[in-house]
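Section 3.1: Structural characterization of target chains.
Under the original work plan, the team committed to producing a structural model for every single-chain target entering the pipeline before any wet-lab resources were allocated. The record below documents one such target. The sequence was received from the expression subgroup and is listed exactly as submitted; it comprises 209 residues.
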Amino acid sequence: MESREQFIESKKNSRIQLGIIPGHFATNHSHVNYYVDMTSIKTGLKMARETAKELAADYSSKQVDTIICLEGTEIIGAFLAEQLAQTGINNGQDISLVTPELNSNNQMIFRDNTQKKIWGKQVLVLVASASTGKSINRALDCLQYYNGQLIGVGAIFSAVDKIGDVEIKAVFHDEDLPEYGNYMSNECPMCRSGRKVDALINSFGYSKL
């Protein structure tokens, strides 16, 4: 599978590269025809920093008190907080970074010691990938529990432009991938044609079948 991997550069910053593997993949929510590999962006210092710079440009004019980091985006989040705290309206401000837990009902929760970083704060949600928007909707529900004020959603890759009234700012979009397809499992044309699922995928990576 790895032999099929290709790399695409961000249109805004050639130093940011996204890995893509064509095939038939199943997520918790849907079937897709690409595995989008963000490992180097999420774990490498240089690309994480460059990604944060691109996202910071979209939010430098908005007050950000807290960044909620989902799907392994903590390194990017730290660089993003640093960028925002050096320029614009957030210049000199301390910005908190938090990651929620998932409870037995798959709901996002914060413990008592971190709730104060959300309650009444201006919150930016950072995700790795927004393919259907379900993870973002869970995060929005979580913000309502703890009275956080959403100011935006940032992503490495997004196949959707908005969730409700919330615009998603992303470094890569579905149009960057040739003929990207995202389907409900019961409507997947690859399944209908009898094509085997190559791997199960989530924010941690993939497991071949």
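The mean pLDDT is 92.
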